[in-house]
Amino acid sequence: MFYKPQDGHGLPHNPFNAIVTPRPIGWISTRGADGRDNLAPYSFFNAVAYVPPQVMFASTGAKEDRGDTKDSVANIRETGVFCVNIVEYAMCDAMNQSSGPWDKETDEFVKAGLTRAECETIACARVAAAPANLECKLTQIVQLPGEANFTVFGEVTGVHMRDDCLKDGRFDVLSFNPLSRMGYRDYTVVREAFSLKRPDE
């Protein structure tokens, strides 16, 4: 099968995000200028550079009470900071609860039953029990083609790692099993890993 996105795929559901899988989930916490905290998951998320460490996430929708975007991007525009909270399998229900189309007054930490903690380098809340948190300062917001498509880039200014996830000096993802996004309503879990040496090693 071949299709041009501009012509449509003719399938019951869009296959695009089922093709680009699995994708890590950036559980983005932000705080607006009014002091309200927000927490929402984004599966268009990844690390993009080592030095300085940088990450990105993309928001692809809008809410009526936020104009051309969603709460996360709106808050980051106001404050210039955000935190990425890593999602473990044990938190999948809380992550899903925080993904609802709630109004900007809703506190997703409360709605999902999560304990928050303050970040160290930025004025923002983080998911206290997450395996890791990346505190970030905004570097740029890039508007992409299409309605309400924005990519947010941030430099990591602080890193939290849960002590039980450190094994022999390494951050061990199998100790908490990261949750990843697939297509449609599907997710997957990282439960095994293997290593490969580069050809020049």
Automatic annotation (TrEMBL):
Organism per entry: Roseovarius pacificus
Coiled coil: none
Pfam families given in the database record: Flavin_Reduct
SMART domains reported for this sequence: Flavin_Reduct
PANTHER family with a match to the protein in the record: BLR2425 PROTEIN (PTHR43812), FLAVIN REDUCTASE LIKE DOMAIN-CONTAINING PROTEIN (PTHR43812:SF2)
InterPro entries, per the entry: Flavin_Rdtase-like_dom (IPR002563), Split_barrel_FMN-bd (IPR012349)
Every Flavin reductase like domain range: 18-173
Protein name: NADH-FMN oxidoreductase RutF, flavin reductase (DIM6/NTAB) family
Signal peptide (residue range): none
Gene Ontology molecular functions: FMN binding; oxidoreductase activity, acting on the CH-NH group of donors, NAD or NADP as acceptor
